[in-house]
Design brief:
Elements lengths: L1 E7 L6 E5 L9 H7 L2 E8 L11 H11 L1 E4 L21
C-alpha cells in the first residue's frame, strides 16, 4: 500500500499518513485546520512485514484502507528524553 507521510507545522511530532489516492483536502475540516499547512516527509510502501518507528503497521494499514488516512499524535511520554516533549493543553480535534 502506497502512502505519503505529512508533518504538521502547527504541532510538533504530529503526522498524518495519507493513502496515495487520498487528497489532504478530503481530511475532516477540523483535522485540516488543527494540522495546518502540511509538510511532506516521505513516501512509503507499506506491508505487514514493514516496521514503523512509533506506530503499529497493522493499525496504520487498517486506517488507510478504512478511511484513507492515519493520524499519528505525539507520544504522551518520552522516557528517553530525546524528543524533549513539552506539556500542552491543546488538542487536535
Amino acid at each position: 500500500m502506497d502512502c505519503t507521510v505529512w508533518r504538521s507545522r502547527n504541532r510538533e511530532y504530529t503526522y498524518v499518513f495519507l493513502r496515495s489516492d487520498f487528497p489532504f483536502e478530503e481530511l475532516p475540516a477540523s483535522l485540516r485546520e488543527a494540522f495546518g499547512q502540511p509538510e511532506p516527509v516521505i513516501d512509503l510502501v507499506l506491508s505487514p512485514e514493514r516496521q514503523l518507528a512509533n506506530e503499529d503497521i497493522n493499525v496504520v494499514m487498517h486506517n488507510l484502507e478504512a478511511q484513507g488516512f492515519h493520524l499519528q499524535l505525539p507520544p504522551r511520554e518520552d522516557p528517553s528524553g530525546w524528543l524533549d516533549i513539552k506539556p500542552t493543553a491543546r488538542t487536535l480535534l
